[in-house]
Amino acid sequence: MVGTRPAKIRSDTTVGKILVQARRLRKLSLAEVSQALKIPVHHLQALEEGDLSVFSAEVYARGAFSQYAAFLGVHAEATQNAFLRVLSGAREYVPLRVHRPRSWLASKLSPRWVLAGVLLAIALIVGSYIAWQVQTFLRLPAVVLHEPTTEVIQGATVAVRGTAEAQAQVTINGAAALLDADGNFYTTLTLHPGINVLHLEAVNAAGRTRVLERHLLMPRH
Q: What residues does each domain of the chain span?
């Protein structure tokens, strides 16, 4: 879209002479006319000189001329047509800036919201890392005892077999049990008639300990 505004052109003295002659005939100065019409002196002078570039928009030039011509009593059709010819020759087309409301996404992508989003993302990442560290520190090591599968043992020895998480240190009744590459451990215990305690401890890298205990019965014969 475009609008119009007066531009600076070569003076057209036809309309200007009519205004000047009528003003002088009434023995008025530009200052007196300005005070009466509340129109700036330089606007009145521009109308008399045919230089309409002082007006920011065509509508202001039209309004000022209509008031001035009516005040001087020269607002005749011929004078009006002459002024319009001057105005059309001084017309400059300028683009109009049409305000378009920003979309919701564009409004949220302001620098302030982008910064807030970045800070929120950083806070979430740091918070998640801290939560993971705390959980890792507090979590007990994983350990599963696969054998023995019964609490009554027929025999003087029993196989103890299980699986623990990587890097865990496993002890069975105080003796270290070695883990293979898959985290499996195996050992045998010697039992005595009656109740025997199988005490297993697994310690992870954070120093957390999980304890499993089984009571195994070796019948007396």
A: 2-95, 143-218
